[in-house]
Every structure is written in C-alpha cells, then in structure tokens.
Write a structure and sequence with these properties.
mainly beta; Nuclear Transport Factor 2, Chain: A; Beta-galactosidase, Chain A, domain 5; 3 domains; ten-stranded antiparallel beta sheet; 9% helix; TPQ; Amine oxidase; copper ion binding; Cu_Am_Ox_Cu-bd; primary methylamine oxidase activity
C-alpha cells in the first residue's frame, strides 16, 4: 500500500510550426527544460507497465481505481545543478515527478514518485513530504471523471425540481437538450479534514454562464469512492435552505415558495457576451486596427530551446502544469542574480450571503493552474510578431496533451523613455537633449482557472530590472442576488451579485547575489534635526537621512496589512503565506514550494505549511536565502466588470532592482539612445544628431489575417 501522495503534472515546451526559435536547447539550460511529449509518454508507459501499481486509464470506469494523475519535471537539486552549471560537474540525472491516485484499495491514498532516468525510465521511488506525512485521498484534486459523476448525481437529484426549474428559469438538468443547466463547484469541499462536500452553483448554460446563476445551490457529499453512496445533503434556493430536493419541490407545488423567475435570455448581444453594443460618444473610429507592436529590423532576443537571452539578460524557463512559469539561472552580463523565480500560488477569498459564496476560498494550484494554458490569440493576447511556443501537459489525461501557442515571447515598447533629459539653457534654447527608448522583453502565459483568467508576465528591462506581474481578467465569481447579499458585494445585473473578494498571488525568489551566501537587511529613512552649519543658531529639519540598516538574524516576515485574512477567518490555508508581504527564509531542498496541489481540498491540515517555514528561528545571515513574496488586491465587483473584469487597475507584481550592484546603469550598453546637440547656438539652425540604430525604423506589421485554432488534443 502506497502512502497518500500526488506528484505533479508535466509540461513540455516545444515550438510550433509557425514559430522560428533557433537550434535545440543548449545543454546547460536543458536541465531545467520541461519534459517532452516523448518523455511524458515514456513515464506513463513505464508506470502503467508496473504490475504492482495496478494502474488503469484515467478516463471512464469507476473512481475506485488506481490512476496516474499527472507528471512533470522533477528539477535537479540545487547543489547538483550549480556544480554542473558553474564547476563542470556531472550533468544531473533527468527525472520526472509522477502523481498516482490509489483509489482501488481498502484505504485509498495518493502517492508521489520520482521516476527516471529519462528519457528511458527504469526505476521509481516514493517522494516524501516534509515530516513524512501522507496525502489523504480526500485532498486530491478533482478529475474529469469525478465531474462527470457529479453531473449525473446532480441531474438525478434535481429530477423532482424539473417543473420549478423549467418554470422559473426556462432551463433544467433532467433530459435537457439545448436549454440545459450547468454548475460551478466551490472549494474547500467541507469544513473539516477528511470531508469532500461541495456546494454546486446552478447556472444557465449560455455564453458566459458564470454570470447566470438561477438561485439554486446544492450541497453534494461525494467523499465515498463509490458514487452510488453520494448524496445531496442540503439545498439553498432564493435565500432559504431545504433539506432535500423533495422538500423544495413540495414547497413549489404547494405554492408556498418564493420563486425567482428569470427573464428569457436574448439570442444576441447577451450581457455576458463580447458582442459589441452601444456607441462611443465622440464617434472616433474603432472599426479599424489600433496601434501594433512591430520589429522593424527583426528580433533583438534569442530563444534557443528553453534558454532566453536579451541584452544583458539570460535565463532558463519552464511551465509547470501544477503552478505555472518558473525561471532558473537568471543572469545579467553572465553573473547570476537568482537561481529561481517562480509562481507558487494564486488564492481568492470571497464573502457572501449564499452558502457557496461564503465557502469560496480558491487556491488555484489545486485546480491545475499551470495546466490550463490555452492558446494565446495573436494580436490580442500577445503581439502578432511574438514568438509562440507550445506546451504539453499530462494532467488528468491518458497521455500528453498539446496546448498550441501556450507561451509567447516579445519585445514590448513601454511607451515611456527608459531615461531622458532636456538640458535647457534657460534662454529659449538648450545645450543637449538625450533619451533612451523604453523597451522590455516579455515572457507570458495565461491560466484560465474556470471563470478567471490570469495573465502571467516576467519583464526584463535593459537597466538590470526584472518585473514579475500578473493581470486578473475573465468573469467574476458571481452568485444569485438577494437583498442580504449587498453587504458582500455589488448588484451587477438584475439577478447577479458580484461577490467581494481578495486576490493574493505568491512568488518564490531564490536570490543568489554574488553567490549563495546572502543576508537580509532593511534600510530605514528618518528625518533628523541638525544645527545649520551656514547659519549659526538655527536648526534644519526635513532632510532625510539614513537611519541605518537592520539585519535580521532569525527568519523574518513582513506582515501584510489591508484585506489579508487573519488567522481564524474560516479555513486557514496555511500553505499560503497570505499574512506576509514578504518572508525571508533559508533555502531547504525539502521546502521547494510554499503550497501544493492538495491545499485546496485540505487547507485545515496542509501537507505544505508555510508557517512551518518561518517558525524555527534559523539565522538568515550569510546563508542561501529565499524571499517569498505575496502581492494582491481587494476586488469590489462593479457593473463595469460586465462582461469581464478589465486588466487596467487589476494588475499586481514586484520588481527586482539593482542597488549599488553595478558601477552605473547597465543600459548604457544599449545602442538605442538619441543625443541631439545644437552646433550653432543661439540660432539652433544646425544640429548634431547621434544615433546608433538605422535612421528609419522601416515597415511594421506583416499583412497576414487573424487566425485562431484553440484546440488542445492528445499527441
């Protein structure tokens, strides 16, 4: 019997036929490259062939079986990677991380395995969580099979409600064809460890169904591996609770139910659709293309496999199906600045009056946040001139699935100079003007986690600054409007409440500045009163002075304020460092991430507890350190979130900025500045214009029409 474990999904980057990166991955960067489709197949074939595991296909059949849930790269240990990268040591063995659901046992469990060596695996071993804890079977992420069984359970349970749903909404579950209901499920799935009870929000299945709740929410207990033992435990309809569908149906038949009757949705220009409606008052044109990004003299970056280079920057990257983008070996002018910078978790805590709304505390790593990287649309999600890369995910599937154009890379004009100065002579002229165009290289992917779309960016600037940024867009998580619900959100449509929520996103930053031995310090800036040396007898106040730097020998966390939930505010997702803007800890191989794919369905006894990272008072002076960074914002939904939340004002992130690291701004190496000097002041009729780029940028965007496929299929 295997201890309860889940390994993580495998994502492999490969350029599609339409992109043109050069050559194959350089040997050193490829130790961090995602597994290829062939490697994914090899891992699955090897594990499926082990009789002692007793694995069955994931799709179809019963839940009570053993299945391979996901596979992804198991990165090498840092010590081995650095020995290889910096000292000519042996190349680390390439391994996969595999997650197996052992549901076909008397005591179901989840187990994680290390599988290798790749590309031809021949052995596997269990992976252990810190403290040796096992993964409860109830903590496992949801699968497509479990959703199909939930749908059947819900269709059968709501059969007595056919007349109510038909009369009130015009849609139903039982034997529906075109006018069907669907549902969104809520997590955590219960209120205590070991539970698996999900509130399901029923919605009309139309375009943008997230904004079409019908006023019915159903609590289904689906803990048992045998769906025949699943049961509806409670219902909520239009502000009232019911113990069974039969009770609710009886109240309707008796005429004692307060019925919420919904208007028939229009066939065109539905409020939840993107179809244009209305007019701008100015009449300026919108039926023509707007400004575009172009590369007039070609690309100024190099992409070789998973190695990306731009100006002074170089890095390796991968796309984890479990949590998303992960950068390794981040360097500027050949000097390593960080060993790893990666997305760890995205959470959203909601408030509301309905049971589903008050229960919603999403932790998106538990929903395969890195695996839902659907096709990026050229000219919309990324510029037409971007380089697009495919991803392969083996997540709740019977083989690798190819996601076309899941990642893009492009150089972005920022629209503001990186730096500039106009040196006035204060007599109507000037001594010189100088400016440097603002540009950054963007590495981007998206995660569509059901209703929300996250746009994940890493930006590299020529002056040695790196920015991590995430935009939130997509549909708001909405529930049925009741007057009591207005305490917890805004009425955004006739029967729709946009629920108040807080977004928190967490990153891991393993800085290696001038080596792995780093310390953490803060600098205080104070106002001071001093005697004025040029005016005896007077004192000067207001010039800031340094109050000194403070080092923190123990592990340190700067507490987050604002709307971050506090301990005791319902289910406590301890794996997420939600109480801290930043926490600094010593790096440990058994603390690779701050959350896990199990946190969503068991936040009460998490396998990875971030609080445990910072409670042992280790010194952080001259050590290999990790900064855990949390960014976020409070979202009070409003009518302008219809049909979707817009990206302006809904982006957060952080910067890595050099501080006395370089002798000067390293962007002086750029050949993009412009310097203008007058040769004949004060007439200014002759100018010396210095440029190190061609005088004219030349033609811009290529004329190909827009095209999109959007499929993701087994390969």
């Amino acid at each position: 019997m295997w201890p309860l474990r889940l390994a993580w999904l495998l994502a492999a980057l490969a350029p599609p036929a339409t992109s043109s990166p050069t050559a194959s991955p350089p040997d050193k960067a490829s130790i961090f490259a995602d597994l290829s489709a062939a490697e994914l197949r090899a891992v699955r074939t090897f594990l499926m062939g082990r009789p002692e595991l007793g694995l069955s296909p994931s799709r179809g059949g019963p839940l009570a079986k053993n299945t391979l849930f996901l596979v992804e790269l198991l990165p090498p240990k840092k010590e081995l990677a650095l020995r290889y990268l910096d000292h000519g040591g042996p190349r680390p063995r390439r391994q996969a991380r595999a997650v197996v659901f052992f549901g076909g046992q008397a005591e179901p469990n989840v187990t994680e395995f290390a599988v290798g060596p790749l590309p031809r695996p021949s052995s596997y071993r269990p992976l252990r969580f810190k403290g040796g804890r096992a993964v409860p079977f109830t903590a496992r992420p949801m699968t497509q099979l479990e959703y199909e069984l939930l749908h059947r359970t819900l269709a059968a349970a709501t059969e007595p409600l056919y007349r109510l749903l038909r009369d009130a909404t015009g849609f139903w579950f039982h034997n529906c064809s075109r006018r069907c209901l669907t549902f969104s499920d809520i997590a955590p799935r219960g209120v205590a460890p070991g539970e698996r009870r999900s509130w399901l929000v029923l919605q009309r299945f139309v375009e943008g169904f997230f904004l079409h709740p019908v006023g019915l929410e159903v609590l289904v207990d689906h803990r048992d591996p045998d769906p025949r033992r699943w049961a509806v435990r409670q219902l909520w309809y239009n502000g009232h609770y019911f113990s069974s569908p039969q009770e609710l149906a009886q109240r309707y038949e008796q005429g004692t139910l307060a019925v919420a009757r919904l208007e028939e949705p229009p066939s065109r220009q539905l409020f939840s659709s993107y179809e244009p409606r209305g007019r701008f008052a100015t009449g300026t044109p919108t039926a023509v293309h707007g400004a575009k990004v172009c590369e007039p003299q070609g690309r100024r970056y190099q992409l070789r496999g998973n190695r990306l280079e731009y100006g002074g920057w170089s890095l390796a990257f991968r796309l984890r199906s479990s949590a998303g983008l992960q950068l390794f070996d981040l360097r500027f002018n050949g000097e390593r600045l960080a060993y790893e910078v990666s997305v760890q978790e995205a959470v959203a805590f909601y408030g509301g009056h309905t049971p589903a709304a008050m229960q919603t505390k999403y932790m998106d790593a538990g929903w395969g946040m890195g695996s839902v990287t659907y096709e990026l649309a050229r000219g919309v999600d990324c510029p037409e001139v971007a380089t697009y890369l495919d991803a392969h995910h083996l997540y709740d599937a019977d083989g690798p699935v190819r996601f076309s154009n899941a990642i893009c890379v492009f150089e972005l004009p920022t629209g503001v100079p990186l730096r500039r100065h106009f040196d006035s002579d204060f007599q109507g002229g000037y001594n010189f003007y100088a400016g440097l165009e603002g540009q950054a290289l963007v590495l981007r992917t998206t995660s569509t986690v059901y209703n929300y779309d996250y746009i994940w960016d890493f930006l590299l600037y020529p002056n040695g600054v790196m920015e991590a940024k995430v935009h939130a867009t997509g549909f708001i998580h909405a529930t049925f409007y009741t007057p009591q619900g207005r305490r917890y959100g805004s009425r955004v449509h006739s029967h729709v409440l946009g629920n108040l929520h807080t977004h928190l996103v967490h990153y891991k930053v393993d800085l290696d500045v001038a080596g792995t031995g780093n310390s953490f310090e803060t600098m205080d800036v104070l106002f001071e009163n001093i005697s004025n040396p040029w005016s005896p007898g007077t004192r000067s106040r207001g010039e800031p002075g340094r109050g000194g730097r403070r080092g923190f020998p123990p592990r340190h966390g700067a507490r987050a304020g604002g709307s971050a939930p506090r301990r005791g505010d319902g289910p406590d997702p301890a794996p997420v460092p939600r109480r801290y803007h930043m926490a600094v800890t010593r790096r440990h191989e058994n603390e690779p991430s701050s959350s896990s794919i199990y946190a969503q369905n068991d936040p009460w006894e998490p396998l990875v507890s971030f609080e445990g990272f910072i409670r042992n008072n280790e010194t952080i002076e001259d050590q290999d350190l990790v900064a855990w960074v949390t960014v976020g914002f409070l979202h009070v939904p409003h009518a302008e979130d219809i049909p979707n939340t817009a990206t302006p004002g809904n982006a957060v992130g952080f910067f890595l900025r050099p501080f006395n690291f370089f002798d000067e701004d390293p962007s002086v190496a750029s050949r993009s500045p412009v310097i203008v000097r007058p040769l004949d002041p004060p007439t200014f009729s002759r100018l010396e214009i210095q440029r190190w780029t061609p005088a004219s940028p030349g033609p811009c965007v290529a004329p190909e029409p827009f095209a999109y496929n959007g499929t993701y299929r087994p390969v």
